[in-house]
Amino acid sequence: MKIIQGPAIFLAQFAGDAAPFNSLDAIAGWVAGLGYKGVQIPSWDARLFDLRLAADSKTYCEEVQGTLARHGIRITELSTHLQGQLVAVHPAYDAGFDGFAAPEVRNDPVKRQAWAVEQLHLAARASSNLGLTAHATFSGALAWPYFYSWPPRPPGLIEEAFDELARRWLPILNAFDDAGVDVCYEIHPGEDLHDGVSYEMFLERVGQHPRACLLYDPSHFVLQQLDYLAYIDHYHERIKIFHVKDAEFNPTGKQGVYGGFQPWIGRAGRFRSLGDGQVDFGAIFSKMAAYDFPGWAVLEWECCLKHPEDGAREGAQFIADHIIRVADRAFDDFAAGGIDSAANRRMLGIPG
User: Fold this and answer.
1) Is the pLDDT of residue 158 over 90?
2) Which of 100, 108, 98 is nearest to 82 (CA)?
3) What angle do CA 182, 185, 191 make, to 5 degrees?
4) Distances from the Cα of 41 to the Cα of 15, 24, 321, angstroms
5) What Rg, from alpha-carbon coordinates, does the chain have?
C-alpha cells in the first residue's frame, strides 16, 4: 500500500504582485514555512513560471526545480485550467472567457482556440522535462448552456457537442501520451465533463484513451449533490490528481442547487476552507489509501469567508493530519499459523 504524498498547495489563488506571492522563490519559501512539501503551479502565471521556456529548455526546468528544492519543495503538477477551458468555448461565453487568453488572440475565437491547443502541447513537453506524470486541466464546454433540459434539446445536440469535444482533445491526449503524462480533467460545473456520466460520454469518444484521466475534487460534487465517495469507487483507476477542497450545501425553502443568482456568500452551496465545510475527508483519505492513490494531496483554497493566508496555514496541518500512514502488515498477523495445505484441507472437510 502507498502513502499519499503531501501536503501540497495549488498556487493559483495565492499568486499576486506583492511579496511573497510575486515570484516562485518567494512563494516557495512562504508555503514551506507553513509546512507544505509540494506545489501545483499555474502555468499561465508568468510571475511564477514560463511555460514556453519550460517546454523548450530542460536547463530552465532544472533551475525551477532547484529554486523549489532550496525550500524543500517539489512540483506536484502543472495546471492549464484556463487554457484547457479555451479548447472549447460556446459563443455565449466568448466575452467571459476572453480574458483567459493572451492579449494578441482575444476577440478572435479561432485564434484563441489555436493558442489554447498550443498551450496544452507546450504543457505536455514541459511536464515531461520536469519529470512529472500527471497534468491538471479543464475540458472546456460546448454543451454547457444546454445542461438543463428546457427548452427541450434537439435530438443529437449533445452527441454532436461531445463528438466535437473529443475531436479537439484527441490530438492533445496523444501528445501527452508521447510525453508520458496523464491529462487529468477537473470534473467541474461549467465544463462539459462535470460528472461521471459526462466523463464516460467523453471517454467513449476518445476510445478509452489511457491518458484521459481525472482530477478529483469533492467540493464540486457536494454542490451537485453527487455521491463523492461512491465516485472514488467508480473511477479510482483514473484518478491521478487530488484537490483537497471543502464545501457545504445548505438548501432552504427559497434556494437550492442553482443558487438563485446570488454571490458566493449567499448561495446554498458554498466553498469553504478545510474543516469548515461538510466534506468527509476522513472517509475520502481512507478510500484513497485503500485504492493506492499514487499522487499528492493538494490544497485548493477557495472560501467565501476566511482569509486565504489563514486557509493556507490551517490547510497544511489539516492535510497532514488526514494522510494515513498505511500499515505494513495485517493487524491479526500475530495469530497466523502459516500455510499448511494439508491442515487447510482438513479444516474444510476435504478428504486427504
Assistant:
1) yes
2) 100
3) 155
4) 10, 9, 24
5) 22
Contact 193, 160 (CB under 8 A): no
Q: What are phi and psi of 29, to 5 degrees?
A: -65, -40
274-294 average pLDDT score: 97
pLDDT at 95: 96
User: How many other CB atoms are found less than 10 A from the CB of residue 83?
Assistant: 26
8 Å CB contact between 30 and 22: no
Is the pLDDT at 331 greater than 80, yes or no? no
Q: Read off the amino acid at residue 59.
A: T
Q: Residue 275: left (phi > 0), alpha (psi -120 to 50), or beta?
A: left
> 4: closest CA among 323, 281, 300?
323
Residue pair 215/182 in contact (Cβ under 8 Å)? The answer is no
Q: Which pLDDT score is estimated for 334?
A: 65
C-alpha cell at 205: 469518444
The stretches of the chain forming alpha helices (DSSP H) are 24-34, 51-56, 58-69, 81-85, 94-97, 109-129, 157-179, 196-205, 218-224, 228-235, 281-290, 308-322, 341-347
Nearest Cα to Cα of residue 77 among 10, 122, 172: 10
Residue 332 has a pLDDT of 67
Mean pLDDT of the chain: 96
Spatial neighbors of 160 by CB under 8 A, at least 6 apart, are none
Q: Quickly list DSSP for 127-167.
A: HHHTT--EEEE---BSSGGG-S--SPPPTTHHHHHHHHHHH
* Count of C-beta atoms within a 10 Å radius of residue 327: 10
Asked whether the beta carbons of 138 and 119 are under 8 A apart, the reply is: no
Neighbours of 66 (CB within 10 A): 9
Question: What integer is the mean pLDDT of 143-149?
Answer: 95
At 255 the three-state DSSP class reads coil
For 134-152, give one letter per residue: b (16+ CB within 10 A) or e: bbbbbbbbbbbebeeeeee
